[in-house]
Amino acid sequence: MRLLMRNYAPRVSSFVVLPVLLLVACTQVGGRSGAEGALVLETRASDSAQARATQRGARASAERQPHEDTKPASPRPQTPPDDASPADEALVFAVVSDLNGRYGAQDYADGVHESVRWLVEDVRPDLVVSTGDMVAGQRAGLDYEAMWAGFHAAVTTPFARAGIPFAVTPGNHDASAGAVFYQERITFVEQWRARRPQVEFVDDRFYPLHYAFKTKGVLFVSLDATTVGPIDATQRRWLREVLQANRDARAKVVFGHIPLYPVSQGRETEILRDAKLEAMLNEFDVDLMLAGHHHAYYPGRRGDLRLVSMACLGSGPRKLIGSDVVSPKSVVVARVAPDGEVSLDAYASTSERHGAHPKIERSTLPESLNEGAQRVWRDDVTEGL
């Protein structure tokens, strides 16, 4: 069902062998070479090769992390009514984005730690989604193993200990599809194949790059969108198959790193600019597309499709296009009602332990961004739509 507007307050409390992907001839964020951009060659490895790769990743992870961090998170106990199915329950999920700091950083800002604590202890969502840029890579000579160990200690492990599934999508600083960052993508895949969330996967052949799963009847689809320009035809065909097979989902949420349209100042050209993708999302009644990279919160809408740009939790918050105010660091908390109605709000982060996380009021944000064919309206504004 399409999204309907309603404010929501959170519950406060009481290879190298890679099994599925080889990346060919891409450029880093900032542009693509060739008219067609990146081409993703999808291959199917043998079952034995998959097993060997998974075992190596798990062994390497076990050497770097405490034993409990290498295990999939156990689902939190649920107590629905006897006659209730998961699709009869509301789903609460949170979204975080761009948590990284300076290049090569292995530690995280106090605001990241406090936001994770707040989500775990106060909001207690059914799921947390990341729209990318978890580590500060995309540069040669960095210690990626140590960077990921720092991220897992600050973010992954607290969610795992709380039994909250954590679903990620790659950012350009995590696993850019640029050819020169091939090794970073390998590391990304190894790190997250050892930390698969306990969710009902719809298609995990290409996890953790692009994949799909359901939670309480809601479809979530991760896109591999780490470079500027449209997603490739192969991934688009895959997305169509997933959406076609899950038309009956209670709600549909697509998430990736690069946004469809400009949101923040200084990154106006760093977008997907993908009319075919947007048309497909509308064709299959996708409710919500989440994106990061622009480091500014904006709950936008084009027609019936909601386009939510995430603020950062790490370094480098930016101003929205046409605004003089830096977008506050924040997280998004969303609720999908049993009837499929989706509501969401952003809550400002703080570096103060147990500090306030005030809701960011929509009235403080521009009514629209951009002009002409790229115009995006705030999701509570009906004028002009």
Automatic annotation (TrEMBL):
Here the segments flagged for biased composition (Low complexity) are 48-60
Q: Pfam families given for it?
A: Metallophos
Signal peptide range equals none
For bias kind Basic and acidic residues, which ranges apply? 61-71, 351-364, 376-385
Which stretches does the entry tag as region Disordered? Answer: 47-86, 348-385
Q: What does the record give under GO molecular function?
A: hydrolase activity
Q: Where is the Calcineurin-like phosphoesterase domain?
A: 93-297
The organism's place on the tree of life at top rank:
Bacteria
The cross-references to InterPro entries, in alphabetical order and at most eight, read: Calcineurin-like_PHP, Metallo-depent_PP-like, STPP_CPPED1
Name of the protein in question: Calcineurin-like phosphoesterase domain-containing protein
Which organism does this sequence originate in?
Bradymonas sediminis
Taxonomy of the source species: Bacteria, Deltaproteobacteria, Bradymonadales, Bradymonadaceae, Bradymonas
